[in-house]
Amino acid sequence: xxxxxxxxxxxxxxxxxxxxxxxxxxxxxxxxxxxxxxxxxxxxxxxxxxxxxxxxxxxxxxxxxxxxxxxxxxxxxxxxxxxxxxxxxxxxxxxxxxxxxxxxxxxxxxxxxxxxxxxxxxxxxxxxxxxx
Length: 132
Hints:
By secondary structure, this protein is mainly beta. The protein is built from 1 helix and 8 strands. The protein has one helix at residues 2-16; strands at residues 24-29, 31-35, 45-54, 59-69, 72-82, 92-101, 108-116, 122-129. Strands 1, 4, 5, 7 and 8 form a 5-stranded mixed β-sheet that branches. A 3-stranded antiparallel β-sheet has the order 2-3-6, with no helix packed on it.
């Protein structure tokens, strides 16, 4: 019985001391600069280039935030922020190319996320790319 009690107490101590605070968080970062082609050719695959900035070395690129609704596309950067590391304050600029499969005959409207304004509202840069 003493062994079972000891085992239960040790198990309780082990789990009661664990830290439930997250060590990472997902952040959406703005697009610093976007380059699109002058036009898309229907049925082809083309690319757009997106430059973004990681605020410091505690951020890592995770994925492209790409949301679409009919002919509109919202583009931003998903990054992982490490909450436990010691960070340098040097920003890191990177560029990524995004393949676009042109499957619609309507013009594409890209809305590149640029951050938030003073009221906390999202700011977007819109670029329309015609389809031939």
